[in-house]
Amino acid sequence: MRRAVAYLRVSSERQVGNTSIGDQAALARAWARSRDVEIVATFEDDGRSARVGDGLTESFDRRPGWCELAAYLRAHPARRGGPDLVIVKDYKRFSRDVVAAQTTIKTLRASGVEVQAIEQPIDWTVPEQKILLGLYLADGEVDNDRRAASTRRGMVSRLRDGVFIHHPPVGYRSVHAGGKRVGIEPDPATAAHVVAAFTLAADASLPVDASRQLLNRLVGRYVASKGRWLERLTNRVYAGEVHVPAADGRPAEWVPGRHDRIVPAALWAAVQARLTAKPVRGWNVKLPDELPLRGIVRSPAGHAHGGRVLTGSGPRGANGNRVWYYHTLGAGAYRIPATVLHTAVRDVLARLTPTPEYVALIAAVVQEAFSEDSLTATAAADAARRDVERAETRLARAAEAVADGHLDGEGYAVVAARARTLRDDARARIEQAAPPPFDAAGLDAALAVAGNLAGAWDALDALGRRELTCSIWGGEVEAPRGRELNTPNTPLVALLTGDFEAYGHKANGAVSEETAPFGPSDPDGTQLEHPARRLALILAPLRDVGRRLAA
Coil, helix or strand for 335? Predict the structure, then answer.
């Protein structure tokens, strides 16, 4: 009886026409039984590609499973009774690079180990069979090149149709359907922060890098260098466009995207105008502690300068002391003392602060939502895993029927295709059923701020006050005509006050199972699977403020 090791590999979970690791294992066992071969060890590379960075060659050293196989053969040489056969499903599973495959096969044969493909057998005693081997290996390489060209054409076609298929930039999140990414949409947790950063970048009285520092504080260390931040500010994805690379004789271009723009057209134009303008020599103004809201406040509607972003300054009075103002520029400018605006903001925060009992109720609702989502997701995932097991069993039985001669190749293809469809659908359900992670510390941080909004304002520095204001007002504040600010109409404010009427729900001041998650979708219309995830996104800005306070 010959001794063999089985090598099972799929280079990607999304490969078309390839059988899974389970399919290959079943085929290898059936093949070995029918030929009186003992499989002494099995090695897998699931979702591992050997493609090298140049995109043209392969390296077996990049496969952990193959490295373990090679180490096993060295520890159990064929001349000392170790395995003298490596079994693979076909040579495409072995390698899709002719040179790399030929070199590896020669190295194994020199140590007394033969490579045999179940579906592409080679009689190594016949020299002419090497021609057939060359055809098998070349077929894999040609197929790989054809797939790469087809994949690139498909990607370019989707981009040309306005579908953004890459990793989303901050402010967006991926949209999935059937386990695949199908585009992007604004992220409720970070989109407002991006708008705030662009608003700050449009303020000619501030250095552009101040907007980078703000965004890093709001969403974590996102942009490490000033140069990279300038690239982000000119990224037209934020303006609702998609970049299409040069292909098929057509030049690179930007096309209208299917996703919503985050940055309004006027703000986008203002930032681009500033970036293309000549820099003022020696201009390096920092954000004063007295003007934390400069760049995110607009003058009130109805004023001659209504809708303009407010800058700020601190002229000295007759006694030599500075008096700080927010204002627009030019004749008929809108002006408001900084102390007046800050007092108005603080008054709104104090008015929005919920009672301790209500904060505890919010905490209980969030925790219950996460617990229920976790149980639901676990049950759905378990059911999907059972479906995967049933599909794998069907595939294994079909493979055994082929080996025993009870099922022909055409029948196996029909059964296998149906079973793989069921299995892939079940795997997609497993991914979709993943429960949202519960961040207990983050919830505590968010609710600590929620229970003392005015106190948080008093304790924060300039950038912290800006972050808190953006969290409550959604990234932009309209200055008051008098001395009182209107209550912002945002999901976070609705949660803090229990007033869901603006979103089509009435809770009468209490959080209920139906109203706390804002029904089946977020206020912006974005469908989210888990109520707990909706609540986590709504509370995320206050969580970040709480962590800033703790630091």
Answer: strand
